[in-house]
Specification:
alpha+beta, 2 helices, globular, 2 strands
């Protein structure tokens, strides 16, 4: 299954911000960033994993993967 942690809803847009964990306790957010399938955007006050996510995005950029791939 999927588990949401620290979820909060934006009053203006109704968007839900959460850390998403897969059944094997792998952070889906971090996986998407490492694979270059997502871009980090901070919209929430819950920034407990921010440095981990910044590092994951830096790794994707350095490895030229996903949206960071050189064309």
């Amino acid at each position: 299954g999927v588990r949401l942690v620290g979820s909060e809803m934006c009053k203006e847009t109704g968007q839900v911000y959460a850390y998403v964990y897969l059944s094997d306790d792998v952070s889906y957010n971090e996986t998407l960033l490492k694979e270059g399938q997502a871009r980090l955007k901070v919209e929430s006050t819950n920034t407990s994993l921010l440095s981990k996510f910044v590092d994951a995005q830096k790794t994707a950029k350095a490895n030229n993967v996903g949206i960071w791939a050189k064309k």
